[in-house]
Amino acid sequence: MCLGIPGRVVQMLDGYGGQLALVDVAGENRKVNIGMMPEETFAPGDWVIIHMGFVVEKTDEAGADAAMAGLKMMGSGGDFEAFP
Fold first, then answer.
1. Are 4 and 67 spatial neighbours (Cβ–Cβ below 8 Å)?
2. pLDDT tens digits, residue range 13-55?
3. What per-residue confidence (pLDDT) applies to 84?
4. Domain range holding 24?
5. 21 and 32 in contact (C-beta within 8 Å)?
6. Which residues have CB under 8 Å from 56's CB, separation 6+?
7. Residue 18 included in any domain
8. pTM beyond 0.90, yes or no
9. Which residue of 19, 52, 54, 75 sits 20 to 30 Å from the alpha carbon of 3, by its own alpha carbon?
């Protein structure tokens, strides 16, 4: 798994060569590029991991939750050795 920002696809956007999706990221809709994953298909409700505005991984809700937990842990300044 790549550590990135999780989001959920809201809709695929017309135009742009079919490479943009509108994704809900922490309650805000963002346009993200899916072009780095041409072998995948995306639909509303799909969970993705985003890095620098690009989808780098398709995941499920558990994977999205794990990515968010990792981000929260990094931002907490806590003891990382306590986490396996």
1. yes
2. 988 888 999 999 989 999 999 999 999 999 999 999 999 999 9
3. 43
4. 5-76
5. yes
6. 2, 4, 36, 37, 49, 50
7. yes
8. no
9. 19
Structural domains counted in the chain:
1
* Res 41: pLDDT: 93
- Angstrom distance (rounded) from CA 47 to CA 25: 10
Please indicate whether residue 75 or residue 2 has the higher confidence score (pLDDT). Answer: 75
The tokens of 13 are what? 């956007």
Phi and psi angles of residue 75, each rounded to the nearest 5 degrees, phi first: -80, -10
The answer to whether residue 45 is domain-embedded is: yes
Specify the residue for token string 């695929």. 12
| Token pair of 61 as six digits | 């809700």
How many whole angstroms separate alpha carbon 12 and alpha carbon 75? 31
